[in-house]
Amino acid sequence: MTVRQMLEAHPRPAIADLDALVRCIEACGDCAASCTGCADADLGEDDVREMVRCIRLCLDCADVCGATGRIVARQTEPDLGVIRSALETCVVACRASHAECRRHAEHHEHCRVCAEACNRCEQACQDLLAALG
Amino acid sequence: MTVRQMLEAHPRPAIADLDALVRCIEACGDCAASCTGCADADLGEDDVREMVRCIRLCLDCADVCGATGRIVARQTEPDLGVIRSALETCVVACRASHAECRRHAEHHEHCRVCAEACNRCEQACQDLLAALG
Amino acid sequence: MTVRQMLEAHPRPAIADLDALVRCIEACGDCAASCTGCADADLGEDDVREMVRCIRLCLDCADVCGATGRIVARQTEPDLGVIRSALETCVVACRASHAECRRHAEHHEHCRVCAEACNRCEQACQDLLAALG
Amino acid sequence: MTVRQMLEAHPRPAIADLDALVRCIEACGDCAASCTGCADADLGEDDVREMVRCIRLCLDCADVCGATGRIVARQTEPDLGVIRSALETCVVACRASHAECRRHAEHHEHCRVCAEACNRCEQACQDLLAALG
Question: Alpha helix locations (H) across B1-133?
Fold first, then answer.
């Protein structure tokens, strides 16, 4: 709710449809938190050796979602080339994390939850890319 | 909701009471996003020269909340000294941002919203510090 | 020097030629620091109103370089699609920041220095992309 | 060298002695990169199960050094309370990472290199705290 309020109070025009923008900023924040938590949960598992790829991809995805969420939150003097490229990288990182988390979803509930967060974030980035035209 | 699900699925014991932990992680994420948005909204205002201190403190606060939210989200092999110190810095950064945003709350709605997010985050960090004992 | 030592001590094979990798990680760190400093110096200038676009693009570039530098520093279980996309976004963000900083290079020395850091980082990312094949 | 050039070109007075400031910003960047690399190298080791605490503390330390380096790089409208608290947290995080990395320094060269980077960063933060008065 804070994200929408902040955007509605912004002095400059939004870079895209407000609903798509809010969903994307919130999904990036949610996915960054999930991936940080999933990497840490993997690290605490007895089968940590099987989870090495998942940890690595979740760390990458958390970094990308964190940066993308900040960039997309900015409405002042936007450079659409930078924004589009950041969103495209976020799609790629979420897809990679999602694919790996899904492989472990049956035996690690945190991977199942994280896979869904990655999937929602990928979709929200795709939708914002479409809304940017 | 994802934050709680991730913590409930974590293989290791939580570092503190789950409610206090969830509130703190979510408040850090919310405050980081608000401060990033507020600094950017300030930058887009006609009176940007009056907003320089607000921009600076919001950038600091976004950085601190981002780091603190990640640290507090980790439950594996915690170092309570690091966690406590991070939470204390987050309290200080939120308080500074809150004080400056409040000064502009009457003429900039985004500062009013951001001041509230900073206040909630300061409180959530204080509560988690208390819960850590 | 630390970056090279860390990579030489890594148990897994490097994702690419070590020289290209070291240069890219160092250039990302340098550019992130320059852009953080340039946005802050702009904010302290009397003509801050003319520097709004420069501040915004430098904040974006600092975020992208920070994330890219972390991703490229990781050698364990790499996903080359994620790495390539991150490097491509870094090229786009550095180019945008470089172009804007250059416009102010004559009257603001920090913009001149920052433009050079952006340019070196763009080049180091391009070189690493080429080395990745 | 870029860090010093950026600070010398800054329109506002530096928050502290320039040498102490430059050393601290550079040490934070170096330590953040080392800790990111060390966590990743640990993850690639055959004895990853013994390295879980090292990974976790290095991830925390990288987050804290990243945020602290950005905050200390800013000279415009500083809040010394925020800056001091950030530096104190950085000292605590570096000390924790250093202690754990040292335990593994004999069998993992990357831990030996990382322990030194943590130590230099702790010292540089202490020195800047002293220079701030």
Answer: 2-8, 18-43, 52-73, 80-103, 109-132
